[in-house]
Amino acid sequence: MEELRRRVDREVFDYRQLVDCLRAYSKPRDKIGALMTAGAIVRVKKGLYVFGESWRRHPVNRELLANLIYGPSYISLEYALSHHGMIPERVAAVTSVTSGRPRRFQTPFELFTYRPISLAAYAIGIAQEQSGPDSVLIATPEKALADFICADRRFRPSAPADYAAYLHDDLRIAPERLAKLDLKSLDAIARGYATPRLAMLAAYLREARRRRR
Question: What per-residue confidence (pLDDT) applies to 212?
Fold first, then answer.
C-alpha cells in the first residue's frame, strides 16, 4: 500500500492504474480483492476506486466522482443551483446532466443521478471550476437554471409572466441573483434547447430588468 500510495498521487484512480501498480503480482485481481476486503481501497463503481479512509491524503471529492462515474456529463440541476448560491437550500446529493442515457449509481458515498438532454443543448454553458485539488465540469448559473426548468415537468409556463411566482416563490431565487445572470448566454442556451420555456424565461428577465431601471 505504501508503494501504491506513492505512485498514485490522486485520491481517485481507475482499474488500469491499479493493475499497473500491482503488475509484480501473479494474480493482481486477487490482490485487488484483498485490498478491498481490508478497506485499503474502496470501489466506487466497476473500474473506479478511491483510497480507504486511513490512506487518504484528502477527503473524497464527490464533485470529481460525479464527473468520472458516468460521462460525458457535468454537474447541474439542484446541486449546481445551490453551489452558485441561486437557491437557499443546501443540496447534498450531486446531480448531473449527460448527453447519454439516464443513469443512477448507488455508491458507498451517495447516490449519483444523471439526467439526459440533447447533444445540442448539452454543449453550451459548461464551466471548468477548481474543486479542491481537482478540476470539475459544472453548469454555469444560467445553464443550471435552464436545465432545472426544462427538467421540471410540474411547471408549465404559457407566458413570460408565469416565471414571476415560479422563480421568486417556488425556487426562492433572490432578485439580485437573477439580475446577475448573463442574458446573452441564456439566449444561446435557449437556442440549443430549442424550447419555448427558455425563450419565455429570457423574456421575463429582460422585462424585469427594464422595470427596475
Answer: 82
Cell reading at 101 = 442515457
C-alpha cell of residue 75: 454537474
For 190, counting Cβ atoms within 10 Å of its Cβ (0-12 exposed, 13-18 middle, 19+ buried), the class is buried
Per-residue pLDDT tens digits for 141-194 = 999 999 999 999 999 999 999 999 999 999 999 999 999 999 999 999 999 999
Residues 25, 98 within the same domain? no
Longest dimension (CA), the chain: 73
Q: DSSP assignment of 4-58, as one string?
A: HHHH--SSEEEHHHHHHHTTTSS-HHHHHHHHHHTTSEEEEETTEEEE-GGG-SS
Number of domains the chain contains: 2
Give φ, ψ of 181 to 5 degrees. Answer: -65, 145
Instruction: Tell whether 189 and 139 lie within a shared domain.
Output: yes
Give the H/E segment covering residue 135. Answer: strand 134-139
List beta partners, residue 45. Answer: 48
Amino acid found at 3: E
Same domain, 29 and 77: no
- Tell me the sheet residues that pair with 145: none
Both 11 and 88 in one domain: the answer is no
The helix/strand count (H/E) of the chain reads as 11, 9
Nearest to 125 by CA among 78, 174, 184: 184
